[in-house]
Amino acid sequence: MATPEQAAEAAVVKTEIAGDATHQAGVFPPFDSHAFLPQIIWLVLIFGALYWLMSRVALPRVEGILEARKHRLAKDLGEAAAMQAQAKAAGETYDKTLADARVRSQTLAQEQHDKLHATSEAKRHAVEADLNAKLATAEAQIQETRTRAMSNVATIAEDAAAAIVDHLTGRAPDRQQVSAAVAKAS
After folding, report:
1. Are 162 and 182 in contact (CB under 8 A)?
2. CA dihedral 60, 65, 70, 71 (to 10 degrees)
3. How far is CA 91 from CA 41, 83, 88, in A?
4. CA distance 141 to 27
5. Which residues of the chain are under the pLDDT cut of 70?
């Protein structure tokens, strides 16, 4: 015989099995044709509430966010265009300044070149004049030395001729005859 505890367990098991059987035999509640009208009413009420909530609360916030973003983008694009124009103007100013500096540097270089050229030409002319003066002095000295040497040539020739005759003949020749012979030969 079964004890009261075993009987209670058996009753619980039978109840669970019976409950499962009724659920298995029934239709899935959303597909139950007797429950369509209340489900459709609730569907319409919930859809209406969500539509109202979205149209009054969520969508205006999203629209505000999109509008703020649009204004911020327009502002940022305007600032970017202004900065680009400033950068372009600064670049043009820089290019102009650079071109002016190049022109100035070329002008200064040409002026310096001309100044150095004039200075070197002046120095060259001064050196040439100094050299010409020294050359003229040297030529005058050479001419004077030549004149003195030429004046002594006759005397040297006479002495050389007298020495040769004395050496060859063994006696000293007459000075006047030697002078006459040298004068006749020159």
Report:
1. no
2. 100
3. 71, 12, 5
4. 149
5. 1-2, 4, 7-8, 10-25, 186
pLDDT in tens, 73-98: 999 999 999 999 999 999 999 999 99
Cα(139)–Cα(143) distance, integer angstroms: 6
What's the token pair of residue 1? 């015989």
Burial annotation 123-142 (CB, 10 A radius, 16+ → b, else e):
eeeeeeeeeeeeeeeeeeee
| Nearest alpha carbon to residue 14 among 153, 182, 22, 135 | 22
| DSSP state for residue 54 in the 8-state scheme | I
Structure tokens that stand for 13 in this block? 């098991």
Which two structure tokens, joined as six digits, stand for 64?
Answer: 């505000």
